[in-house]
Amino acid sequence: xxxxxxxxxxxxxxxxxNLTFGHHPEHGWxxxxxxxxxxxxxxxxxxxxxxxxxxxxxxxxxxxxxxxxQKATTGVPSGLQNFVEMxxxxxxxxxxxxxxxxxDLVAPLALTIFCxxxxxxxxxxxxxxxxxxxxxxxxxxxxxxxxxxxPNITMAMALVxxxxxxxxxxxxxxxxxxxxxxxxxxxxxxxVFLKPFTMTFNLILEGVNLLAKPISLSLRLFGNMYAGExxxxxxxxxxxxGWVLGLFGGALQFVWAVFHILVITLQAFIFMTLTIVYLxxxxxxxx
Length: 287
Hints:
Layout: H1 8-15, E1 20-24, E2 28-31, H2 35-40, E3 46-47, H3 48-70, H4 79-98, H5 106-122, H6 130-136, H7 151-184, H8 195-236, H9 243-283
Antiparallel strand pairs: 1-2, 1-3
Helix pairs in contact: 3-5, 4-5, 5-9, 7-8, 7-9, 8-9
């Protein structure tokens, strides 16, 4: 892709543009042929590449973990069984250290989140031109392969966590308890005339705090992965700037890839851990 037929700016824009399907005001339903057309399709447009890769990766996770469960043995375990048991023990330990309530959902949810986010992040280590070039052979001109560089994906996952937070807050504390938690702290008063003002102020503060959870959860993951992908794209530009910069770019890309292994793992762990902590707060009863 990084040939002389396009500029560096066009190359970067191309690699950061999603394969978008939606309704264009002038052309009707179809695929966007440029970033501008994608933007003009509006909110209801679908990023087909992000959807496709995220579903493929969760399918890989489900397939191998189900296979390990089906073939689990008490004898000498296979390598896959050893790996799955190690992952399950790791997640269970994280849940035990951060979640004080009782729930059959939290551990499986945490395992799914960690593995899914890790696999989506792992796509960042695929050479930036490899998969887009393969899809170009079939007439597909845009293909972003890292779902977590799409804020729609990270926000969707964070919204699911947010819905669970609200659901369990109401389930454990009741509607009155949940509303009381939002309006009763941090400011309290026994004055009948001042109480409506303190409750309103508390609601604003706690409401912002509640809404900030999914926003920070999604933007933290998106920002780190988007920055990492952009750096890989910028390094790829060096391959067409002469053999000296090409060699330097290759070495730089290797170093960044090794460092990025830590980043993608850490981001998956942070997303999982914050989910556990938020659900623990939702299960905690305040008196």
